[in-house]
Each structure stands twice: as structure tokens, then as C-alpha cells.
């Protein structure tokens, strides 16, 4: 469309003609920003103009809404420089021009005054300055609009002044044009909007409104604003569509009656012309049909989209238009000749395709075939409908009725259009052979495009239509190929009825082509298809049985898929563990759901087995729990497809994973484990890029031969009824290993139905287990010193216990086996037990075993006794006594772990047996002193959960016969409850001298509570007491302050400590501790310490010191210490501790404990004299030996003095439990009484 905005030119036409070329070329060069109303985005546009001579007829008349013929700007041209000429002619002409514009309401004008040098030369004497003429014009015509008068200087010269003048003029013209556009388009849009708002009033016409809005679209197109122009047509399209939808809903409009008229022409779209004036005139007159309106509207949209370089949107809109028009004709109930819509759609598709081909090259068409393939397919469908309607594809040719219908359709096509192509226009006039070829070409073109863009489903649907075409032509082989492709889409998407229909067509083709195996496979699918009637299913089933009943060569057997005949739904093992020992009976029960409509006799049902030697199972496992657990029942999940057996997922077969283990051949230990895929050949196979993976329901599955082997499950003569059937096999279990069921085959005469792979994986295990002997206590825990029952369990495994086989148990002194005459062995089969023969000697106990078959359990019980070792704890470690912490008791108890070896008849190696016995008692002793009197206390603690009775409690001394231990225990028998203790006490009496070392043995008899006397067992505890003689006695007295009868809190009191030597020194003591002074008297040094841990006393002055004690009997040393009571009451005496001070030359009797060292500040204590030690801090003793000195000196080997505590009983403190009365500081007593 070459319309341009109209600009009128008045005045000097010769002057304008000389400047026209330059003006027309330079005006559109520079873009201008067009700011529109209503907040619409500004745009940059290039302005062009159609300059025409001014005529009053061009001025718009009132009521004329045409914008294409509207003059947007009026220009008056003059080059007058003579005042007289201006006044006589130019001014009057300008006035007439302005009066005409004012009469028609045109306010968009401009006066251009052209100045040249030639004009100046001709009128040198009579002219006024140019500015005077311009000023005169402005004062006469542009009083309020001085910018409406523009001067153009020397327009034909090439100078900077001329170029500047041109630029100013062009800018002014562009500005005035834009202002005119904005004003007039805004006014037009307001009028159009007003007209649209009146659409609900009677008499409103869509065609009239259509012409108005199209006028606006023309203006936008004229301004090259194609997007805005397209919006106008889209609004008209949407408005008309809404009226049609409202009509279908019952809301009618009067103007729609013209569009409900019967369709007389169906010549299709016309896109080659920018404007179809014939159809536009019909719309303007209100005589256009629905197809005419839609065709014209789409042609305008197509033109604008081509201008916008969006040709592929044309194809998308075209496809929507064709489908929508068919629906709109039905909604408006428009009468259309049968087949007319097919002709209109067919020709429209071809017209759009040819229009796209005309504006795009072949490379663009090939790259964007996804946009055009829909039109190709739609055209193919409509051509097929036309051929069937007119009888052009019939093998017998068209009938007279078909010919009449064809003539009627040709009448509505109108004249031929050579630009559309002869093959498109003459298709309905060709014979059947030509239309078939044309349809085939269209179908193949559509299929290739669909495949190129990856739309396989659409390509296969077109192929399905093409297959029916080939079937009518008798080309069954090509038809089957397309049907198989279509079947893949139907099955993958779950369309059961199309699947059934397509399979029937495939079966017909295969039967006529003589493809027996494929035909039987398809027949089996159809026989199990519930969408067919029972008679049809029986027919296809009989086809299979008829072929199976033929006698012939067995090598010509046909192999079909098991899934089309029967489905494996369940598999169950008996026993359910799916794990048996070698030689045992294992049954496998299969549940098959027969899909056939009638009962079928099966000659043989067989299952192939893959055998894998399991080295772990062959050479033995330590425990049965280590064997792989196989499910006893396997459910096979089936799909829900009603069109026969379910297909596998379109993504391919499922993964079949299995565990692999790498075990050491020496000790069967697990080195590594992993996962392996067992059907990699199915998962990793390459699929065709143009088709999804094959499934059993799409095409005939590949032939799978049944692998014959030694390991097979077979059942003969089975009758399968429709529905579920149970088949029981006896599985082989001779050789140990893992047996996996791989394939299933049902043989019906010459036909074999094979399930190529059983998934999920089903396997059972046959194991060969080594004999296992376990020994465990009958009750926990085992107690030492009491007879305990021990249970022997023998799992015979693959070994058969024969008569004469015996277990040889080595005897130990710490755990003898008690003889028994009623030891009974019990086996898992038979139930009755038998008496065991037990023979004992000094070293071996022999237990004869009864005959027991393999894989049985033999159990018997023996009574054993663990001897409690006697002695102190330090001695018990040599007899394998260990400490164990029992968390529930939170006490430390002793246990004994004796070991014995067992020789078994099935092994050349001995088995070591270790049982843990807990000693029920924890025993400890202590030496108590009361002056020179000595007492020995023994504490027996029951750490077990059993209550005991203690009897005949004794304490003896082994080395000194003159020593008497007088028992102070009054009861002969004592109850020792669980977690409780019993204390026993003896007084030591002697005649001459008390030995320094005592070897004592504590003995008692014990038995569980409420047992007979015969059940008592002895218990011994040996211990040694050293340095039991009392060497020193300590007496203390607290003296009140002077003048006081009692001590008072807060006052200093005197503490007098008296240390007395009771006995003469022994020989060892003389050599180790004594020192001879100047008087020849043997002395020893003692250190004393006064401390009060209860904070009742404050020691004032010295708290510790050393004394030199003569080593003679009754030698006494007194120490005075000042103390202060801190509280009133009966306060216990401060604690007084006496230690031995050993010089650096004395030998170390006991290794010092690292935790018992005195702090380093005690070194200064020894460096000072006794008189200077009054303020020394008390020495803290935490161990048996105290070294005085720094740790660094000890580590360097320097001998240092040390402190050593006396043994229990060597020092007796008479004031240990004494108390003294301390009075308060004052006798003031205050009582607070609150009265309310």
C-alpha cells in the first residue's frame, strides 16, 4: 500500500515544482519522535508526504471520516520581493487561500517565502528589504503564529546558508505534520471509540464500524507503523469472535443476520493481493458472508505480518483461523454445501503455504517446517475427506451422485487462479488415480516434516491414514509398516480402543502376506484383548490352536511371547525361606493368569535355571544368618492396560540389580561388595532416534529361543483355564549354590510361548554347611564355686553323626565336669531323647554322641564347676582372673575364664572353649587396734544376684601355733543377700610376743538360700598382715585458758600431744630407722602433723614438726600446740598424724607413688632446725611413702629425705574419738519473739 499523507501546495506552482524533488527526498531522511496520547509509548517515525496542488475539493467535508484523503498540512509558496506585487496579487491570493481553509476548519498551514539572489538583482530599486516582506506577511496573516511563516534562502545553491535554511524548513514541516497527525488521529480515535460504545444500540452495524477502524489501520500502515495497524485488525477479529460466541450462547445481534446467509462461494483465502477490494466492497455494502469477512480480515493480517517479517506467525494464525471458521459456521447455523468447507480449508492451506514460500527461501522453509507442517497435515485430511465424499478414491469409481456433488463443489470455487498453482486448483477435476497420487504426496510431505521436528506421534497418525489408503489399494506390506508405527504411539499413550482396531488391521495384513509367526503373535494379543467380543477373541484363539495342532517338523516351531498368552503373577517357594540344604526338597509354585478366552492344553511348562556356584555356601558358613535372605514369595506387578498385556515403560526395561561379593578363599572373609546390572544388554542397547523403544505390545517381539540345560523345571500335561492357574515344580537341590530362574516356556503343539526374562529376579539357595558346635550357659551369669548347667548345641550340617562318634573334652583343674548318669541328648528329629554315655579320666572326658542325620540339631546339657581361686587379688591374676565392670551394678567384680579344648570327630583341629564364671564374692580384710589389743575384720560382699547362706566361718593363722584367734561372731549361719555384705571379726591373742607378720586364711561354706547341707561349697580367702605390732601411742589433752574451767570459742587453748614408745625396736627397725646420738642412745625421727579437716579448730603457731624419739620402751615426747576453737559445743579433737622420717641414707622399702609426693615447699622444713618450724604449713600425705624434695632432684638421682606412714595398727591414737566441751564466748542469750 503506497498511500502517503496528503500535503496541499498553493501559491507559486512553478516555484514549488522547482523545489519538489529536493523536498520529497529530504523530508523522510531524519526520524521524528511521535508522542501519542493516552500514555502510549513514543515512537520514531520517518515522515513522507504526497504533495498535491491545492484545490478546495480536497478539503474535508463535514461527516467525512476518511483519513486517507484527508490533507494533513497546507503550504503556500511565494518568492515575492516587490511590495507592489505583494499588495496587488499575492496578498489577495493568500487571503482567498486562508478563507477557504478557515471555512473548512483546517488550522494546519504554513507560508514559505523563498528568497534568491536572482530576484534581488531584478528588483534592486523597487524592492524593500526581504525582512520587510516577511514582516508584512506575518503581520497580515500570522499575528499570533509567527512560526507559521518560514523563509527558505537560496534553496538551489550548495552553500552552508542554504543547507541551514533547508534544515530549518524540513524540521518545521515535520513538526507541523506530527502535530496534525496527533490532533486529527486523536479526534478520529475518539469518534471511533464513541461509535464502538454504541454497539448495544439498535441499528449499530459491525460492517460500518469495521470500515471506520480499518481506516485507522490504513493510516498506521501509511505511517509504516505496521504493529499498530495489526492491533486494529486484531481488535476487529476479537470483537467479531465475541459476537459469534455470544450468538452461540443465545445473545443475538441484528447485524449478524447478513453473516448467517448460506455460503455461495468457497474459493479459499486470497493472500497475493495487499487488499482484496472485491471482498472489502462486499463488507462495506453489508453483503459479505462469514467466509468473506474472515478471508479479508486474515489477508490484511497476513500482509502486515509479512511487513513485520513474521511469516511463521501467519501459518499459526492460519491454522487457528481454519479451525475457528468451521466452528463459527456451526454456531451461526450457516447453511453450507457438503464438502464446501473441505474445499475452502484445502485451498486456504495451499494458499497460505504458497504465500509463505513466496517470501522465504528454501533454507528458511526447511528450518521452520514445524510452523507449516500443521497446514500440510490439515490439507491432507481435507483432501482425504473430499476424495471419499466425491468417490474419487473408490476402487469402482465415482457414482452419478458423486459426480453431481463434484459439479456443485466446482461451481462454488469460482474462476481458476493461476497464481495458486494448477495442481492445487485442478485437484477436484482430476480422476481417481491423480487424486490418490496427490494425496500420497501430501501425506508423505507432512510425515517428513513431522519427523524432522520430532513430532513422531503426529507423523504416525498421518501414516495411519496413509495405511488405510494403501489397504484400499491392496498394498498390504506398506500398510502394515505404517500401522505398526501408529500402533507404537497408541500403546505408549494408552489408547486401548485404537490399539485394538489397529491390531485387527495388522492381523489382516499379516494373514494376507503369509507371515505366520507375526500373525500368530498378533492373534494372541487380540485373543486376550478385552475390548473385543467373546466371539472375536475365540476366533483369534482358534487360529493359534489350529496352527499348533498341525503335525510337522519340530524344527519349524513358532516362538511367541509369553506375555500375549499368559501372565506370571506370583511365585512362591516351599519352604518360604527359599533356602535349603543340599538334597532337601524344594517346591516352586507358579501362578499363571491365562489370557485366552477358552481353556488351553499345555504339553509342557518349563523354566530354565541359571546355576551359580556359591563358594561360601559350598565350603561352609559360620552361621546361617550370614546366608543371603531370598524372598519366599514374589509378586509380579502387571500393568493396567485393558488392551492386552501391559507394555513396558517407554523409557526401556527396568534395571535388574544384584549384589556381588568378593570373599577371601582362605577364611571366607568379605573383601568387597558391589552392585551389578544383570540386563545391561537390554538397557544399553541403541534405540532408533525416530521411534521410541520397542515394547511387547507394539510389534512382534524378537524371537527368543528357550535355552535348554541340565537345570530345568518341567511339568507335563497342564490345562490352563481362563484366569489364574497354579503350577507346582520340584526344584533341583543337589549341588550347593545359587539357582536363578531365567526363562519360562509353555509349549502348545508347534507353538512355544516364551517369557524371555523373569523380573524381578527370582532365586533360591542350596547350601552345604559345616558342623557347628556352640557352648552357652543355660542361665546367665555363670557363678564360680557352684555347679552350673552348660548347654551344648551341635548343628550337624552336611556331616552325619555315626555310632561311636564322641566329643573329647580336656579336663582342667579349675573347671571339672561333674559326672552325671542322666544326661539326655535331644535332636530336632525324632522328638524322643536318648541317654548320653559320659566317661571321664584324669585328662579327658569323652561324650558319646547318638547317631544324627545331616542338617539336624543335637542338644545336651552338662554340669560343670569352676573352682574359686583362693588368695589375695594380686595373686589371682596368675590364674586368669580379670576385673570387669558391670554397668548395672556399678561395682567391680572378679571373673574367671578357664579354657578347655574339644576334639570333634568331623575335624582334625581342636576347638577351644572359654566360659566366663563370675566370682560371687568380693572379700577384703582390715586390721583394727584398741591399744595393744588387735582385731582382724573380714568383709564378704555378695556381688551376684543370688542370695546365699554362709556357714562355718573360720579364720586361721598358718605360721604361729601359739597365736589364738578368738571369734566374736555369734551366728553359725548368716544370710548374705544380693548386693549386701557380711562383716566377721576376730580378736588376736598371743602369749609371748605378737609376731610382726601374720599369714591368715579365711574359710567359709556357702550355698544358695534354702539349699540342703550337702549343697554347701567351700570358699577360701588368703591374706597376709605385716607390721601388726603397736609401736607408738598418741595421747592428746586440750587445756582451757588460764583461769577458765572450760574452753571457750574464740579463745586460745593448749593442745598437749604425748607420743610414747611402747615396745623395744626390732632388728630390722634398728638397722633402717635408728640413729645413734652423742650419748650413745638409739633414736629415730618422727614427724607429727595437727590438722582439722572439719574446720572446728584453728591451729595457731606451728602445725607440724619433727621429734627425735628414743628407741626404748616407754620413751615419751610431749609437744605443746596452741589451738583455738571456732564453734561452741562438744567438738572432736583435731586430727593428729604421726609419720616416719627416713634420712636420705635409708633404703626405700616401698616404691614411692607418684601421686604421694609432698609439695616442694616442704624441703625448707627439713633445712631448718626444730625450733624454727613453728609456722610451717601442715604436710599433706596421700600415699604410703612421702619424698621430701623437688621432683627434679629425684629425677637426677639425688638421695633425698622422705616421709613414710606407719602401717595400720602401729600407731594408736587414744584421743581419736574424744570430744571436748567448748562454751560460747559470752553467756548472753537472745530470744526473738514475734507477737501478733
Helices, strands, pairings?
Blueprint: E1 6-11, H1 13-26, E2 32-34, E3 43-45, E4 50-53, E5 71-78, H2 83-103, E6 109-115, H3 117-122, H4 130-141, E7 149-153, H5 160-197, H6 206-222, H7 226-248, H8 277-285, H9 290-307, H10 311-331, H11 340-359, H12 362-367, H13 369-389, H14 400-411, H15 422-425, H16 432-452, H17 456-473, H18 476-493, H19 496-513, H20 516-527, H21 534-548, E8 558-561, E9 566-574, E10 579-581, E11 586-594, E12 600-612, H22 615-619, E13 633-635, E14 657-663, E15 670-677, H23 680-683, E16 712-720, E17 723-731, E18 737-748, E19 751-755, E20 762-767, E21 772-777, E22 782-783, E23 787-795, E24 806-810, E25 824-827, E26 834-835, E27 837-840, E28 844-848, E29 857-865, H24 873-876, E30 881-886, E31 891-896, E32 899-903, E33 910-914, E34 917-918, E35 921-930, E36 933-942, E37 948-957, E38 964-967, E39 973-976, E40 981-989, E41 997-1008, E42 1017-1026, E43 1032-1039, E44 1047-1048, E45 1053-1061, H25 1067-1073, E46 1075-1076, E47 1082-1091, E48 1097-1100, E49 1104-1110, E50 1116-1125, E51 1129-1132, E52 1135-1142, H26 1163-1167, E53 1186-1187, H27 1191-1195, ...
Parallel strand pairs: 1-4, 1-5, 5-6, 6-7, 8-19, 10-20, 22-34, 43-55, 44-56
Antiparallel strand pairs: 2-3, 9-11, 9-13, 11-17, 12-16, 12-18, 14-15, 18-19, 18-20, 21-23, 23-29, 24-28, 24-32, 25-26, 25-29, 27-28, 30-31, 31-34, 32-33, 35-36, 36-40, 37-39, 37-41, 38-40, 41-42, 43-45, 45-50, 46-47, 47-49, 47-52, 48-50, 51-56, 52-54, 53-54
